[in-house]
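[agent] plan:
  1. take the single chain provided in the ticket
  2. run structure prediction with default settings
  3. attach structure tokens to the ticket
  4. add a short note for the reviewer (M.T.)
[agent] executing step 1
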Amino acid sequence: DVARAESQQQKLTGPSKMLSQYSISGVKYALDQLGYYGGAPRLPLLPASESVRRAIDEMLAEIVSKSPASLRT
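[agent] step 2 finished; step 3 output follows
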């Protein structure tokens, strides 16, 4: 279903760009929040700051709330 795939891709473009600005630390934090293993970034990178974690949490909450129930489990 090409139309559905394009729609889903458009919904993920913004969050993808957001995570890329937070570097590996933000991606790892997001993975941890989604139930995957992100872990701590290797030095010299530092873990995501509190403000970055809040922004990522808000973005993830929005994505999960808009996703079909089958994707939330």
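[agent] step 4 note for reviewer: The first helix runs from residue 2 to 21.
[agent] ticket updated
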